Amino acid sequence: MRLQYANYMQKVFDLINSRWYIVNSKPRGRTMINISEIVKEWPVVDGWSVSAGVAWCSKGLKVRIGSNVWIESDVRIGGDVRIESNVWIGSDVWIGSDVWIGSDVRIESDVRIGSGHVLKKGAIPVCTLGFADGYQKSLSAVDGVAYIGAGCRWFTLDEAIEHWSGHSEDRSLTLCLLESAKAIAKLKGLKTLI
Q1: Residues with Cβ < 8 Å from 5, sequence gap 6 or more?
Q2: How far is CA 140 from CA 5, 98, 168, in A?
Q3: Backbone angles phi, psi at 71, to 5 degrees
Q4: Distance CA 68, CA 70 (A)
Q5: 90-94, 96-100, 120-124, 170-174: lowest mean pLDDT where?
Q6: The domain containing residue 87 runs over which residues?
């Protein structure tokens, strides 16, 4: 029994050290669910798995789930959500609609991810900034650096300001959101070049 436990713990430490952050544990006494295996049983329409109706995803909602995606039992996932491989989502997390979560992401407990939020590889969500100029904007951190997600765009905060400052169309509202992102990044101790 001790050898089995030691082998199990070694696998856990190997996973943590590899930055996959996938641990089949029971934080706060809750149960982890491998949703990658569950969605394999759902019907697929146009490349999207259609929920059969489970506690964490309402019937009829469409999702795309990669391999090794683990959630706690009280997570709620909206429709048109993409979650890539090797993702761990803690307890009491609500994910809105039209969200894209990249691979190797760990989302801690008690987080709300607004609709339209983008989290690319290795990102940690900080906050949803708001909706402007046709897209939801979100602030995330990757290795202590501030990143902005908007639609298919994924920029460092500095790149985002440069991109939308030089845009051919008026992006004043987006630039206002980015000003708030600068202040939030500073409060959170995230790196920027500004």
Answers
A1: none
A2: 36, 17, 26
A3: -130, 155
A4: 6
A5: 120-124
A6: 31-115
For residue 71, count other CB atoms closer than 10 A to its CB. 27
Tell me if 14 is assigned to some domain.
no
Query: Tell me: the pLDDT tens digits for 118-148?
Result: 888 888 888 889 889 988 898 999 999 999 9
Give yes or no for a contact between 61 and 77, defined as CB atoms under 8 angstroms apart. Answer: yes
Q: Is residue 17 part of a domain?
A: no
DSSP 76-109: EE-SSEEE-SSEEE-SS-EE-SS-EE-SS-EE-S
101 and 131 share one domain = no
Domain's final residue, options 62, 81, 115: 115
pLDDT tens profile 164-193: 998 888 899 999 999 999 999 999 999 986
At residue 139, φ and ψ (nearest 5 deg) are: -110, 130
Cβ(93)–Cβ(71) under 8 Å?
yes
157 φ/ψ angles, rounded to the nearest 5 degrees: -60, -40
